[in-house]
Amino acid sequence: MTNYVVCPDCGYKLLKAGDGSNVEIYCPKCKLKLRIIIKGDEITILKMLSEKV
């Protein structure tokens, strides 16, 4: 299954990913660094501690 992931702060659509994905990405709109983990039906979005770019 393909999932669309949006930034939890600003709502910007970041990417689409499938099961087993493990991604680190900066939101191009608000510059928040995120780690996205997809395992089965569970999607985890973690805010990474870093200074905004």
Mind explaining what this structure looks like?
This protein has a single domain, classed as Rubrerythrin, domain 2 (Single Sheet). Helices cover 0% and strands 55% of the residues. It has 53 residues and is mostly beta strands. The termini are far apart.
Q: Which short descriptors sum up this protein?
A:
single chain, 53 residues, mainly beta, Rubrerythrin, domain 2, three-stranded antiparallel beta sheet, two-stranded antiparallel ribbon, 5 strands, 55% strand, globular
**How are the strands of the largest sheet arranged?**
3-4-5
CATH class term: Mainly Beta
Calculate the mean pLDDT score and round it.
Answer: 90
Radius of gyration: 11 Å
Q: List the domain count as a whole number.
A: 1
Uncertain runs: none
Q: How many strand elements?
A: 5
Q: What would the principal axes of the Cα set say about the shape?
A: globular
Most strands sheet: 3 strands, antiparallel
Q: SSE order, as H and E?
A: EEEEE
Tally of separate helices: 0
- Class computed from helices, strands and strand pairing: mainly beta
Helix proportion range = under 10%
* Share in β-strands: over 45%
- Please give the CATH architecture: Single Sheet
The name of the CATH topology is Rubrerythrin, domain 2
Q: Cα distance, first to last residue? A: 32 Å
